## 1
Amino acid sequence: MTRTALYAGSFDPITRGHLDIIERASHMFDSITVGVLVNNSKVPLLTLDERMDIVQKVTSHLSNVEVECFGGLLADYVNQKKFSAVIRGLRATTDFEYEIQMAQMNDRLFTGDTETIFLMTNPEYSFISSSLVKEVASLGGDVQGLLPGYALDVITRKLRNRK
Amino acid sequence: MTRTALYAGSFDPITRGHLDIIERASHMFDSITVGVLVNNSKVPLLTLDERMDIVQKVTSHLSNVEVECFGGLLADYVNQKKFSAVIRGLRATTDFEYEIQMAQMNDRLFTGDTETIFLMTNPEYSFISSSLVKEVASLGGDVQGLLPGYALDVITRKLRNRK
Amino acid sequence: MTRTALYAGSFDPITRGHLDIIERASHMFDSITVGVLVNNSKVPLLTLDERMDIVQKVTSHLSNVEVECFGGLLADYVNQKKFSAVIRGLRATTDFEYEIQMAQMNDRLFTGDTETIFLMTNPEYSFISSSLVKEVASLGGDVQGLLPGYALDVITRKLRNRK
Amino acid sequence: MTRTALYAGSFDPITRGHLDIIERASHMFDSITVGVLVNNSKVPLLTLDERMDIVQKVTSHLSNVEVECFGGLLADYVNQKKFSAVIRGLRATTDFEYEIQMAQMNDRLFTGDTETIFLMTNPEYSFISSSLVKEVASLGGDVQGLLPGYALDVITRKLRNRK
Amino acid sequence: MTRTALYAGSFDPITRGHLDIIERASHMFDSITVGVLVNNSKVPLLTLDERMDIVQKVTSHLSNVEVECFGGLLADYVNQKKFSAVIRGLRATTDFEYEIQMAQMNDRLFTGDTETIFLMTNPEYSFISSSLVKEVASLGGDVQGLLPGYALDVITRKLRNRK
Amino acid sequence: MTRTALYAGSFDPITRGHLDIIERASHMFDSITVGVLVNNSKVPLLTLDERMDIVQKVTSHLSNVEVECFGGLLADYVNQKKFSAVIRGLRATTDFEYEIQMAQMNDRLFTGDTETIFLMTNPEYSFISSSLVKEVASLGGDVQGLLPGYALDVITRKLRNRK
C-alpha cells in the first residue's frame, strides 16, 4: 500500500523551518507532495512560478518529494488526489488553536481516510515565519540562515530590484 | 426581579455554535436579546436585514428570545437597556485572551451591575466560526451541519447569485 | 421561575477573589449556594467547620447567599438540588484548559438543564489562589488584602498555633 | 519499506479518545504497536495484565495493531525496535506545552529517523482523560460512552470489588 | 559602566500601561530611551510630533528618560545606539507567543550583547491597548483612567475635530 | 548607583538553560547573585552543598556572579538584600501563567523598587528542565549537552552510586 502526504502552503518563500518539516516527513511516507497555494487573498512577494521554482530547487535532494500547485479548497484537492495525510508544522500555542480548527473543519470535508498530522517545528526554527522573514529582509535585515540558500538569493534580488 | 441577557455579534451568518449558546442561555434568564451588530468595520456578506431575518427564523422556537440590532459601543447599548448580563461563547485559548480584555474594558464602561458571563462552546461546534464557514462555503465546500438549515439556504443562494 | 446557582470549592480559605465572584453572581441569580467540598484528597489547613464558618461570616451581607457542604461527585449534588447553573471563576489560560474539561464532563453528568457559567476573575485578584496565599502566609509573608478580614484572622491564629 | 509506529501510554484504562487515535493511525502505517508502560511512578488502578488485556480486546478489529509492554526510557524502546514514528494525541494547550518538551527531548535521544507525530483528539473526546474518568467512576458517576465497552466492564467490576 | 535601555512602540497614544512599564524600568537602568516608531504600516491616529510630544510631557517627571523617534529595523537602531537592553511589557499569552518570536529574531540581528527583557504588565492595566482605547474613545466611550491626563486631552480634542 | 539582581532556584542540578540566563543577565547588572533554595518541599537529588558547589564551578568564569543559599520566603530575602531585580527565565506558555502569578504576588511583598524581569529561554534549551533531565538520566538516557560538564559528572556519579 502506497502512502502519500501533502504539505501545503504559500511558500512565499519557503523557509528553513518548512524545509526541515519536509525532510522529516519524507522518511515517513512513500511520497510527499509540496502543494503551493495559487490564489491566496494576500498579494505574494514572489510569483507562483518563482515560489514553485524555489521549492523544487531546495527539495531536489529528496527523491520522493514532488512539487505541485493548487487553488480553491484544500479539501477538494486532497479528496481528488487521495492523500493519506496532510502534514502541518506546529510552532506555538497560537498556531495550535488555529490548526485545531482547520484540522476539525477538514476532517468533515475529507471524503476518505485522510488524517491531518502535526510535526513540531525544530526549536531552532520556531521563530521563523515567511512573513517575519520578508518584513526583516525588506527593511535590510540579515536573514541568512533562515532561508535555504537559493531562496535567499531570489528574495535578495527581488527586494533589490524593487527599490 | 426580571433578569435579561444580551448575546451580541455580527451573525454573518449565525452558526450552530451560536444557536447552541442561545438555547442554553435561554434556560438561565427571563429573556435573551440577540443583538445584531449594525456597523462593523468589515463589509458583511449578508445585509443587516438578512442577518436579522435568519436569527429570527432560527430562534423562533425559543419564546423568551428576541432579536434587535444595535450600533456604536456595546456598553452604551447595555447601559441603556440595563441587561443583567452579557453572554459570550468561549471556544479556545486565543478567544479567551481577547475575551478577558473585552470583559475588563466593558466592566469599566458598564454603569450598572451588568456582568459578562461565558459559556463553553459545545466541543462539537468548537471549530466553527462564521468567517471559516463563509470561506469554506465560498470555495464550494459543504458546510451542511455547521449552520442552521435556514441560514444554509440563504448563504447558498447568496453565494450562487454572486458568481 | 426561581434560578439558583452553585459556587463550589474547598475554600481553604476563601479569598477576596472568591468573594468577588460570589458578590457579582448574587446579582444574577435568585439564590447562590456556596458549596464547601467535604472530602478533597489533599488534607486542608482548615477544618470543614472552620471553612464553612468563614464563608458564612464573610458572605453574611449578601441576603441571597447560603452556605452548604457536600461530598462525592459535584454532578450528583447538582442533580439532586437542581441548580440552574454552576459558577466558576476564570483566572488564566491554564485554568481555562482544566475548566473546559470539567465543564464538558459535567455536561454529560448533569441530568437537567444546568449550565456551567464562567466569570472572569477581577484582574486585581487574578494572581491569588488559596494555595499560594497559604504558602506565603506559612512562610511569614503578609497576605493582608488577599483574604477577607475574618479569614485572615483565622488563618493567622491557626498558623501561629501550629509552630 | 515497512513503516511502523508506536503509541505509548499507561492506558489505565484505555479511553475512547485513545482508541480513536489508534484507529486513525492504523490507516497511515503498516503496523501500530500499542506500548503499555510497565513501571510508571503512580500506582495504577489496573494491573499491567488487565491493562494489556483490555487494549488487546478493544483493538482486536484492527489487523495491523499489536500490543506490547515496555519499561524504562521510551527512547530506548524506540531505538531498539526502530519505529518510524511515535504517535501522540493532542487535546489542549497545556498538553501541547508538555508534548513539545517531550518531543524535543526524545528527538535528541532517538538514534534513528524516528519522528514524533501528533494527531488532534476528536473534539467529542477532548475532555476525556484516564484519570478524570477514574475519578468520576470511583465517585459513582456514569462514564458510559467515554470508555470502550469492555474497559467499562472491567473498571466497573474493579471499583465494585474495591469497596 | 553605563546601562541603557530602549522601550519602543507606536505610542498612538501612550497608555497608562506603557507609562507604568517606563516608570518601573527607569529604576533599573541608567537611562531609558522611549523610541517612537516613525513609519509603521498602519496610518496612526496621531502624528509623529503629537505622539512624541505626549510621551515627553507624561515622562517629564522621570529624569533618566528621553524620547527619540526611529524608523526602519529596530535591530539597526539598537545596534547603532548600543542599548544594553530592549524592554517589552507582557500582557497575555497571545502577546507572549508574538514576543518570543520577535525576541528570538532580534537576538540574531543584535550585533552586541543587547538582551530583550520583559516586565509583566500591572494587572490593573492588562486589558488596555492603544488600539482598544482608540476604538472605545472613537465610539464615545469613557477612557479616563486608561490614558495619562495629557494623552486623554489630546485624543479627545483630536476625535472631536474629526467629526 | 549599583544594580544587583537575584536569580533563584533549586538548581537540582543547574542546566545549560539556567547557565545561559545567568550569562546573559551578567551583562546587564553590576552583580548577579545565584540564590540556591535551601528547603524546598521536594527532596532534592543533590544536597545543598553539591548544588552550590556545581553552580560555583560552572559560573566561575563570570566575575560578577556570586552564589548564595537562602530559605523561607523569596521576598524576605529580596527585601533584606535590596536586589534591584529578580530574574526569571521563560520557556513556555504554562511557565508564563505561573510566573505572572508569582511576579504579582511578589510585587505586593517587595518593600523596595525590586522588579521581576523575564528573559526568554534560548530555544535550543527550551525543552530542558532539571526534573526532565533527572528523569531521563535516572533511566539511563544520555543528557550530555543539556547540563554543564561538571554538573553532568556529579549527576552521573551520584546516579551510579545510587544503584
## 2
Amino acid sequence: MKEIYLDYAATTRPLQEVAEAVAVSMINTYGNPSSLHKKGVEAETILKETSDKLSKMLGCLADEIIYTSGGTESNNMAILGLCAAYKRRAHKLITSSVEHPSVLETFKYLQTQGFEVCIIGVDKEGMLDLEALQKAIDKETLLVSIMHVNNEIGTVQDIERIGGLIKQKNKDTFFHVDAVQSFGKAPISVKKCNIDLLSISAHKFYGPRGVGVLYKNKDVRINPLIYGGGQQKGIRAGTENVPGIAGMLKACNYADQNMERLNAHYRTCKMYLSDSVLEHIPDTFINGPDKSKGAPHILNIGFRGIKSEVLLHALESKGIYVSSGSACSSNKKVKSTVLSAIGNKKEDLDNAIRFSFGMDTSLEELSYVADKLEEQVMLLRKYTLGGRHK
Amino acid sequence: MKEIYLDYAATTRPLQEVAEAVAVSMINTYGNPSSLHKKGVEAETILKETSDKLSKMLGCLADEIIYTSGGTESNNMAILGLCAAYKRRAHKLITSSVEHPSVLETFKYLQTQGFEVCIIGVDKEGMLDLEALQKAIDKETLLVSIMHVNNEIGTVQDIERIGGLIKQKNKDTFFHVDAVQSFGKAPISVKKCNIDLLSISAHKFYGPRGVGVLYKNKDVRINPLIYGGGQQKGIRAGTENVPGIAGMLKACNYADQNMERLNAHYRTCKMYLSDSVLEHIPDTFINGPDKSKGAPHILNIGFRGIKSEVLLHALESKGIYVSSGSACSSNKKVKSTVLSAIGNKKEDLDNAIRFSFGMDTSLEELSYVADKLEEQVMLLRKYTLGGRHK
C-alpha cells in the first residue's frame, strides 16, 4: 500500500545527506570535544562550524549557540534557567494560551515555585492579543515566552512587533521565543526581534532527532538545568552529540538554501488540500488562520461529528498518516488546549486533524488524500451518527 | 602517521553496525513515537525492543527504563529528581570523593538548596571507606550515590555490598549508581545490588553519543528535570531519539555477547602497558588499584616531574591520543579531585595520564606507545627539569 506521510510537524524524515553525515561523523570524528588531543579538536571543529552557520542564520554570535538534546530541553533550559538566575529580580512570567506543552508545563511548575504566571489569550486565528500583552507587562515582569509558529494550527506570531513591544514597556523583561516549528522555514533575526533566548529542534527541519539548540544572548544569564563537567561554558554539561550536530549542520545548509522554494511548495500543498476538503466535504472548517495565512506547512481542519482519533485511524488504514492535534501531547487523553484557546465550541474540540506538509509531499498524493478523506468522512458519519451529518 | 586512540573512557568509536543502524533508523523509522499512526508505532517498537534488552541486562522491568540524552543527564535526573520528589522526607545526601563531576556538581548545587551533603573518602586505591559510609547513613539519609567504576583511575566499587549495607542501615535510603564506565563491561543486577536508580551512557560502550539511560525502580518517584509533552510516562519530556536508541540496541547486543572476551583483551592490554612503563621508565607509578585489579580498560599512570598536559601533547605529536584525568573536566583548569581523594601528594596531582583501552587496541600499538612514552618522558625530563629525573 502507498504510504503518505502528512505528519511533518511531528517529525521529518531526515535528508539522506543528514543520515550520511551522522554516520560518517560517528566513525570519523568520534573524539570527545573535551579531549585535549587531535581527535577532540576534530570533534570540536564540527561544533564550531555548526555554531557559525547557526549564528549566521539567526544573526547572532557563534558563542551564543548552546547545544541541547532537542526543542523541549531548549524550552525548559531557557525558562527554568532564566528564572533560577534572576529569581531575586522579578517574579512575573507571561506566556500565551497556545504554547507547546514544554513551555506551558514548565510555567505550571514555576507557578508552584512562587512565580506569577500570566497567560495571554489569542483570537479565533490564534493571534496573540497584543493589547493584553502590553497591559500585562510591568516592572515585575521577568520573562515573556511566545512561540513563533504554532504547532497545531500554524498561526505565525509577529515576533518582531512583540519583541519591540516588550522592550518598550520594560527593557529588563527578557523575551524567549519557541521557534521549533519555524526555524529553517522562516527567516529569524534575533537582534531585530529583540529576542534573548530562542529554541530550535533539528528533527523538525530534516535534521536528526536528539539535537536541539538554545540561542542565548551573551548578556543574559541562565542557571544550568544539568550540572557536570563544564562543557559549553558550564551552561549545559554532558558530552556533546557531535554526530547529531554534524547532521544538523547539513539540515541548516539545506534549509537556508531552499527556504523560499520549500515554503512555496508547502503553500501550494496547503491551498490545494484545504480547497479540496472544504469544497467537497460538508461540515468542515479550518482551525486557525485562513488558508492563505499562517505557516505554509500546517493545515488544521475540523470534521464535525467525527472524533479525530477515529478519522486518524481510518486514514491510517488507507496508508495516510496525519495527527490529531500535536504528537507531543497525544500520549495524554486531553482535549487540545490550543483549540479551546481559539474559542472552539465544546463539540469542535475533538474533531480536528492536523495535516503537515514536507518536501516529499506531492499534489498527486494530496488528491488521493482528499478522495480518501471524503470517502471516510462520509462513511464514518453515516455509520457512527446514523447519517446526521450526511 | 599511525594513529593510536587510547581514550576509550572518554568516548568510543561506535561500531560500524551501530552507525548503520542509526542511519537506517533515521530514514526508515522516522516517525514520532508519540504519533498515533503506524509510523509512530514503528518508532515506538524500537524503544520497546531496546527497553526489553536493557531490562534483561540489568535484571529489571522494561518499564523501568527511561531514555535520556546521556550519562550526565541521567545522573542529574536521578539525583535532582529524587531530591525534588522526597525533599519533605529527608535531607541528607551521601556520595564519595571520587565521583564524576555530573554527580559532585549536582550535589554542590543541592547543598545550596538546603540539603546536607556528606562526602565519604576513599583509600589509596580509590575504594570507598565502607565503615565511614555505614556510620554516615542515618534516618535522615535520603540518597547514597556511588559510582561503579571510576572514570579516571578505574577503581571498581563493590556495589552489591554497598547496596546491602545501605538498605540494612536504612531501608528507606535510596541507592543511585553511576554505571557510565561499567555498563556493557561488567554484569550488573540492580535487584541483587539493591539499586534504585542507575545511569548509563551509550557512547561509552560503542553506542552513539547523545543517548543515555536511567534505570528507575518502579516504586521510586522522581520529579522531572524537563517538563513537556508527557513522553516516557511524564518523567522525561521531549521526542525520543529513536535512531540513537536503535544504535544503542546494537551496542547492547554486542556488549552482552562479547563482554568476557573484551574484558580479557582489555586486561591483557592493561597488564602489558603497565609492565612496559613501570619496568622501563623510572619514577612512574600507578594511580588507583593495582594493575591486576580495577577496571580492565582503565590504566592511570603518574610520570614524576612531567605535567600531564605536556606529555599528552608530546604523545599526540606521535599520533597517540590519551587523556590527562577525565575528558569531562578537562575544560576546567583544576587539578584532579580524584587524585587528591586517593591521597596523592601535591607534586603528584598533575602528572597523571589515563590510558583507556578498546576493542581495536593491539599489543603492537601498545609496544609503540611504550617506546614513545619512554622516549618522550626522558626527553621532557631532560629538557624541562635539567635532568633531575634522569
